[in-house]
Amino acid sequence: MPGLADCQSFLRLLIARGDPKAIPLARCAIDDYLALAPVSARRGGLRVLQQDAFDLHGTAVGVQRSFAETVEAYIERKLAEE
């Protein structure tokens, strides 16, 4: 699904930068993905994004690690809402 790949790429970029001011952009990207994804694909897509953020968290340091944690937590909240 192109929307998922675009969201994943964007989140990876934001995590790599680790700028706390970009957290609203990450949330917006996730929300946009959910708005465009078919209902049947949302939960699976969120799991892919969450796993990717988790993997990046494992190799990140400092603000990048904190950013990845924030993304993971937001995705977890969205999964709870689905």
Question: Could you walk me through the main structural features you see in this protein, from its secondary elements to its overall organization?
Answer:
- By secondary structure, the protein is mainly alpha-helical.
- The chain contains four helices and no strands.
- The chain has helices at 2-17, 23-36, 39-59, 62-81.
- Helix 1 packs antiparallel against helix 4.
- 21% of the residues are buried.
Number of strands: 0
**Secondary-structure element pattern, one letter each:** HHHH
Overall geometry: globular
Largest sheet at a glance?
none
Rg over CA atoms, rounded to whole Å, is: 12 Å
Helices, by number, come to 4
Proportion of residues in β-strands: under 5%
The separation of the N and C termini measures: 19 Å
Q: Residue share in helices?
A: over 70%
Q: What's the overall average pLDDT, rounded?
A: 93
The secondary structure category is mainly alpha
Low-pLDDT stretches:
none
Oligomeric nature of the chains: single chain
Index terms:
87% helix; 4 helices; 82 residues; 0% strand; single chain; mainly alpha
Brief sketch in words of this structure:
The protein has 82 residues and is an all-alpha fold. The chain has helices spanning 2-17, 23-36, 39-59, 62-81. The chain starts with a helix and ends with a helix.
